[in-house]
Amino acid sequence: MEKLQQTLERIAPFDSEVQKQCQEHIDNLTKPPGSLGVLEHIAAKIAGITGEVKPVLPKKTCVLMAGDHGVVAEGVSAFPQEVTPQMVLNFLSGGAAMNVLARHAGAELVVVDVGVAADLPDHPVLRKMKVAYGTANMAKGPAMTRQQAIAAIEAGITVAEGAITGGTGLFGTGEMGIGNTTASTAITAFYCGGNVKAACGRGTGVDDERLRHKIRVIETALEVNRPEPDDAIDVLAKLGGLEIAGMAGVMLAAAANRVPVLVDGFISSAAALIAAKLNPDVTDYMLASHLSEEPGHAAALQLLGLKPFLQMNMRLGEGTGTALAIPMVEAAIKIVHEMASFADAGVSKGEE
Ligand SMILES: O=C(O)c1ccc[n+]([C@@H]2O[C@H](COP(=O)([O-])O)[C@@H](O)[C@H]2O)c1
Ligand SMILES: Cc1cc2nc[nH]c2cc1C
């Protein structure tokens, strides 16, 4: 708890003065004001986060948190639980979508076992920080104890702080966990007014009948657990997952160290909701990479006050949206460094 508490206490709003100075610099570059659209917002936000009017090009690290879900016993996913450890092995051998996209983005990929329901081998890319062999079935009671939820958040903080010490200046969050759209829907519906049907999607691809069943299971979980709305650890412990907690930890540590963090899809956004309930200033440090196909994602992002950059009809998770967004962040930073100003280039400025 101490590590979490200390991290929460270190989070402060980003530097809006530096953000403004960066926007003023961008307004003097050889283009009509505002014409680079979202790219300008990205650059100015990174400036506000880092406190540098001209932020340096960062070292990028994508953290992929893996964990299993007891609620899978209710038949809420199109895939069996064994796929979680099988995919972790795939990440370790470099063959998953996220491996390809992280390589493409020039990002380091760190895989964390924070709660996979199987033993995994030693591997240089794998951080073994298992808090439990998966969560308990949230349709029957709390998914985790409070202690487990906090331990998983703190695992995320530890991983992120280690990466920052190693020079990381931009994070992406991602996850792997069969059943985790059920947990994420429960968290999102809980915070967005309780409409499970509106927030619930097909995850890995359940059919209509299983979708109706998944909605009932989530409604049952909300009734059985009745989390305390003002206690985000209670919400996380009762409805969440170990990888969701781990990602929340990465986000909190990034914010505490003034490092920007790209949020991936629906599950990452559920983690972002928990982090934001623990300290609302954390959203200043988040950038939403893409809009997932999961129907609850838009509502979660709206509650977070984040606008996604990309709409690619993706619903994979793993951090794939963040890997796609990394080159956009780099492009935004390069605009700030490399574009000529009106004065430099001798181009006439329009009406002020
Ligand atoms: O990131 C997303 O928006 C996303 C949307 C749907 C599914 N997923 C991935 O699919 C898995 C969860 O799906 P499910 O059906 O088992 O709940 C998990 O490993 C996620 O990474 C991810
Ligand atoms: C194959 C597979 C890969 C995934 N990656 C993230 N979630 C996943 C779910 C499945 C089923």
UniProtKB/TrEMBL annotation:
GO terms for biological process: cobalamin biosynthetic process. SUPFAM superfamilies: Nicotinate mononucleotide:5,6-dimethylbenzimidazole phosphoribosyltransferase (CobT) (SSF52733). GO terms for molecular function: nicotinate-nucleotide-dimethylbenzimidazole phosphoribosyltransferase activity. It comes from the Bacteria. This is Nicotinate-nucleotide--dimethylbenzimidazole phosphoribosyltransferase. It holds the Pfam family DBI_PRT. Belongs to the CobT family. The keyword Transmembrane does not apply. HAMAP family: CobT (MF_00230). It catalyses: 5,6-dimethylbenzimidazole + nicotinate beta-D-ribonucleotide = alpha-ribazole 5'-phosphate + nicotinate + H(+). Pathway: Nucleoside biosynthesis; alpha-ribazole biosynthesis; alpha-ribazole from 5,6-dimethylbenzimidazole: step 1/2. The active site is at E318 (proton acceptor). The keyword Acetylation does not apply. Its EC number is 2.4.2.21. It is an enzyme of class 2 (transferase). InterPro entries: Nict_dMeBzImd_PRibTrfase, Nict_dMeBzImd_PRibTrfase_bact, Nict_dMeBzImd_PRibTrfase_N, Nict_dMeBzImd_PRibTrfase_sf. Catalyzes the synthesis of alpha-ribazole-5'-phosphate from nicotinate mononucleotide (NAMN) and 5,6-dimethylbenzimidazole (DMB). Keywords: Cobalamin biosynthesis, Glycosyltransferase, Transferase.
